[in-house]
Design a protein that fits this description.
It is built from 11 helices and 3 strands; from the N terminus they run ααβαβαβααααααα. It is mainly alpha-helical. It has 2 domains: 130 residues, Response regulator (Rossmann fold), CATH 3.40.50.2300; 68 residues, Orthogonal Bundle (Arc Repressor Mutant, subunit A). β1, α3 and β2 form a beta-alpha-beta unit. α4 crosses α6, α7 packs across α9 and α8 crosses α9.
């Protein structure tokens, strides 16, 4: 299945001519339902990008395996970390669309016949090691965000969506001074010098607020109490 319908049709046509029974999946419809309607076994040639209305292709790998299908990834985007995740999830192999078209057909044909497909064993091991190292570095870069309180996480999330301090103040029912204090605390804990740098860092490491942050509703600040002019709260006398 591929969001580029023409390519999917061409691949299917060539494979049909090699005595394979193929079906092109419409990615604008329920993908898993269409595949399941054609049985419970076979090979799914899966693109990693299935259009803006669908999740990433790799999210379909485990459901497809549970349905009894094998999955071969075919992608036009070179992303070794994504490829390694696909192999880790159980894909039988990964092919790039930039390869020679006839080579792609031959490799898919071989896969349907039970032959191994790229990457090879040593390449798979290297990709797995690189993915482990990437995850280690990512976890390390996300560690400072663990110091943010739930309210600070909410403030950072609002900043990431483009809200100003004044807008955050109005939305969270707290004073502008409180929001500015929280922003300063966020930048200090993340070891950056501005809220723009905090936002850039959050995007870079793929940070998202914890579920606990959304579970904590900020309480509105109480208005200042008015001083009583008379300790006994008596009404002032009117002179005649």
């Amino acid at each position: 299945m591929d969001d580029h319908h023409f390519l999917a049709e061409v691949l299917a046509s060539r494979l049909d001519g090699m005595n394979h029974d193929t079906t092109v999946i419409d990615v604008e419809q329920d993908i898993l339902a269409q595949i399941q309607a054609h049985g419970s076994e076979g090979l799914v040639v899966l693109d990693l990008q299935l259009g803006e209305n669908n999740p990433a292709g790799e999210e379909f790998i485990e459901p497809l395996l549970e349905l009894g299908f094998h999955v071969l990834v075919l992608s036009g985007v070179t992303d070794n970390h994504a490829f390694a995740r696909c192999l880790e999830l159980g894909a039988v192999g990964v092919l790039e669309k930039t390869a020679d078209f006839q080579s792609l057909i031959s490799l898919i044909d071989g896969c349907l016949k039970g032959e191994s497909v790229p990457p090879g064993g040593s390449e798979r091991a290297r990709m797995a090691r690189e993915l482990d190292e990437y995850r280690r570095l990512l976890a390390q870069s996300r560690r400072p965000f663990e110091a943010l309180s739930p309210k600070e996480q909410l403030v950072l999330e609002r900043i990431m969506t483009g809200n100003s301090a004044a807008e955050i103040s109005a939305e969270m029912f707290v004073s502008l001074a409180t929001v500015r204090t929280q922003i300063k605390s966020v930048t200090r804990k993340l070891n950056v010098t501005s809220q723009l740098q905090a936002v850039a860092l959050a995007h870079h490491v793929g940070w998202q607020p914890d579920a606990s942050a959304h579970g904590s509703k900020p309480e509105p600040e109480s208005p200042p109490r008015l001083r009583q002019s008379n300790a006994n709260n008596r009404s002032p006398r009117v002179r005649r």
